[in-house]
């Protein structure tokens, strides 16, 4: 048993095999909501379950083994490597984060999540349901929020409420980048589960808890510049390359060159 756990609720076009290519310092629990067992040998744990992502997590909660320091729950359309995921766990522990997420490039819903190249991490009031990473205690504390509604929209706002709105333990980790490869709001999370008007679920949570629609960055931990780093490693993903990569991955095509250098 390793120190950290990644739980992937995955469908037929999942990218989770990218996450586990190479050495991993985390265990993988796959929850397949499809109709076959194509992924049953891909991780340390395997479950078949139907539903929306965090409704599924709530349903299987008692089957999740104890003893892990952090639990990371990314969507299955995120392109990440095992090195990046291990780095996320490492920084979460180093900075004693209760909830965090990698920064994003590609498709996005809220700009706060997008990667800031000069930042190591940013303390915020929120991370998105697309890829939260919880310490085990916070995971337990937030358990009851997972079934607040069917769509899961807005439950990520409740996590800050549960923690008492801290300003130094929720963060977007810019040192780790996840490529969101498919357009937002079009996933089979909605079509498979007859989810309609999820915006109403979000609005209800905001209204009931007197929350702001605006998300906030409290402070930033700057990235230390490594001026001795070779030039060929100092590459930041340009927009055209990222768009090309996202569209290729979404269509199941080969990734263009420089994947390892940029991501």
User: What is the β-strand count?
Assistant: 10
In one word, what is the shape?
A: globular
Main sheet summary = 10 strands, mixed
CATH topology: Spore Coat Polysaccharide Biosynthesis Protein SpsA, Chain A
Provide the structure class.
alpha/beta
Mean pLDDT level: 88
Oligomer: single chain
Order of helices and strands: EHEEHEEHEEEHHEHHEHH
- The CATH architecture assignment turns out to be Alpha-Beta Complex
Instruction: Domain count, please report it.
Output: 1
> First CA to last CA: what distance?
28 Å
- The low-confidence parts are 258-263
Percent range of helical residues: 25-40%
How would you portray this structure in words?
The protein has 263 residues and is α/β, with parallel strands linked by helices. It contains 9 helices and 10 strands. Strands 1, 2, 3, 4, 5, 6, 7, 8, 9 and 10 form a 10-stranded mixed sheet that branches. Strand 1, helix 1 and strand 2 (26-32) form a beta-alpha-beta unit. The longest helix has 13 residues, at 82-94. The radius of gyration is 18 Å and the shape is globular. The chain starts with a strand and ends with a helix.
């Amino acid at each position: 048993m390793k120190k950290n756990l990644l739980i992937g609720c995955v469908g037929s076009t999942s990218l989770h095999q990218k996450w586990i290519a190479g050495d991993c310092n985390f265990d993988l629990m796959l929850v397949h909501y499809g109709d076959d067992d194509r992924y049953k040998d891909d991780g340390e744990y395997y479950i078949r379950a139907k539903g929306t992502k965090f409704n599924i997590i709530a349903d299987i909660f008692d089957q999740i083994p104890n003893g892990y320091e952090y639990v990371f729950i990314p969507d299955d359309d995120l392109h990440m490597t095992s090195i990046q995921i291990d780095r996320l766990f490492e920084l979460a522990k180093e900075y004693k984060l209760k909830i965090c997420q990698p920064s994003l490039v590609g498709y996005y819903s809220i700009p706060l999540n997008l990667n800031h190249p000069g930042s190591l991490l940013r303390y915020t009031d929120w991370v998105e349901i697309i890829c939260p990473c919880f310490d085990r205690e916070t995971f337990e504390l937030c358990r009851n929020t997972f079934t607040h509604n069917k769509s899961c929209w807005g439950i990520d706002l409740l996590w800050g409420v549960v923690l008492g709105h801290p300003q130094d333990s929720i963060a977007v980790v810019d040192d780790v980048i996840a490529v969101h490869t498919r357009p937002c709001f079009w996933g089979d999370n909605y079509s498979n589960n007859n989810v309609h008007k999820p915006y109403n679920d979000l609005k209800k949570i905001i209204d009931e808890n007197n929350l702001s629609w605006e998300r906030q960055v409290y402070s930033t931990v700057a990235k230390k510049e490594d001026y001795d780093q070779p030039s060929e490693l100092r590459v930041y993903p340009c927009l055209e390359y990222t768009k090309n990569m996202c569209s290729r991955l979404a269509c199941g095509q080969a990734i263009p060159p420089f994947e390892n250098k940029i991501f």
